[in-house]
Write a structure and sequence with these properties.
Blueprint: H1 4-18, E1 23-28, E2 47-48, E3 52-54, E4 57-63, E5 67-72, E6 78-82, E7 92-98, E8 101-106, E9 113-117, H2 125-129, H3 143-151, H4 157-163, H5 172-182, H6 195-214, E10 255-259, E11 262-266
Antiparallel strand pairs: 1-7, 2-4, 3-4, 4-5, 5-9, 6-8, 7-8, 10-11
Helix pairs in contact: 1-6, 3-6, 5-6
The structure holds a DNA duplex.
Amino acid sequence: MPELPEVEVTRRGLAAPLRGARVLSARLGKPLRRPLGCPAAALVGATVGDIVRRGKYLWLPLSQPDGGLLLHLGMSGSLALLAQAGEPGPHDHFDLVTDRGTLRLNDPRRFGAVVWSASLHEAPAATLLARLGPEPFDPALTPETFHASLHARRTPIKAVLLSGEAIVGAGNIYACEALFQAGIHPALRADRLSRPRAARLLAAVRGTLARALDVGGTTLRNFTDVHGASGAYQAEAAVYGRAGAGCLRCGTLVRRIVQAQRSTYFCPTCQRR
DNA sequence: AGTTAAACCTGGTTGC
DNA sequence: TGCAACCAGGTTTAAC
């Protein structure tokens, strides 16, 4: 599913075309993870503002009626902007028809969400965003503050990265890749990371996310950008999905373990406790 | 309070 | 070939 780079790729594809678009109609398919929270017809007539991203969420502001839609792509979601929208398929669960095209959410597993909120700063949107940690490229996130937040956690560093409390945006692929880049064993307790290693990990998370953004994200099976194009990062993953294959750096066989019910891939030689 | 399982869904792949 | 088991870019909720 979409991690931060994929969501940001999506945002960049939508922002300019949809800015100022007028909502003509909306259609709901099968239920998503949570209900829209308003009748689809209530969106008609609204004007779309500047789409912003927070973590893996997108906020699509609307005016007249004022409010907005908080979108999440879950594990298997993608958004397309269609000039001519055909009949919705079995996994097309939300259409926002505008005078600039139809924004269509396709999500086979339906872990995604489209939620109406009167503003980003009140429920339900604010509630959903409340537990998110700092944005990875926020200059206020320094090696010192990152190290301090890791110091408060006794769980494995991989699980802490996935939780998004210390930094948002890295999901299962990029958490594995960043730990490899930083040479850190995924099972190392977060509070055992030294300051220099925390600094190295922060740089690795930023570098991994930035690189993925540059190449359009990762496409394992579902994800495409708003024009239907796949990402390319999967071709350069060093450890993710490579269990049993040789480490690209040292040749040791990449291992797969399970942490917090998720697969973790790592090189036991390059990544040390 | 802090950590860990279970839950939500569908579909593709693997293995007997 | 058939079918069961397992796996998948995430997050919330319930339970130790």
